[in-house]
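Hi P.,

Sorry for the delay on this. The queue was packed all week, but I finally got your sequence through. Input first:
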Amino acid sequence: FFQAEDGIRDKLVTGVQTCALPICKLTYVPASVAGVAYELGFQDPAYFSRLFKKLVGMTPKEYRQRTQAEA
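Then the structure:
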């Protein structure tokens, strides 16, 4: 039980540390969300979206729409 919890915590910490790169890519690169996910090394764009939402509080698509509306 604790080992699984440690693994999840490690993945989330790593995700938070690398969160700046996906945010930059979603803000400045015109690739699709799936394209950004693949470029960042994710094999499953849906997993990338779920992890992004968990860390940022909105989906990559919602984030991109919000940042484009503010520009």
